[in-house]
Design goal:
Blueprint lengths: L17 H17 L5 H12 L2 H23 L9 H32 L18 H12 L32 H29 L1
Helix pairs in contact: 1-2, 1-4, 2-3, 2-4, 3-4
Amino acid sequence: MHGYGPMPQQPTTSRPSPATLTTVRVILVALTVLSCGLLGWAAMLRLAIVTRRPRDWFLLVVVIALNIGLFAFIMATPDDPDEMSDAAALFMMLWILGLLAGVITYYLYAEIRHYNTLGAPAPYGASAHPAPPLPYQQQHLAQHQQHQPQPQQHQPQQQHQPPNPYTAPATPPTPKPAPQRLDQVRAELDELSDYLRQENKDSRDGEGR
């Protein structure tokens, strides 16, 4: 079995919680609206950092250039609104509205789409970085150990070994001779019986006289 190493997994970016994303979006949109689009580069900067796409970095440069142009145009207009022509006022209004609409719409659309591709957020306490994959042989061994039933514990049984023909058979033990104490007791009993017979004989002889 030829084992080739697993393909290296690309690191995935963890998704923040929905509450955090909503708070950041509200702050950036409000900042862009309150500044009349002059701070719209902040939302585009966050988007470029999150997605890391060249197109978003390019749009960030475009928004910064439009902000600089808008600021220069506002500084060039007279301080008295009555002295500003209608064409200049209309041009500045369209510039601000177009910048606001473009920045806010694209920022919300691109960020929501980016985080939707990442999937659901990781649960609390889970690691953001997945564990490195095991080689093929280790994965196969781990799966085999999971499906293999646990062996039951049995008491060790005595195995009967076959007799070895090359070993000499054991000789039966020779019976030991009876102890001498038994002979002594037997002799004493014989003497006792002879004595009793002699006593009986003597008693008979005395009665006959």
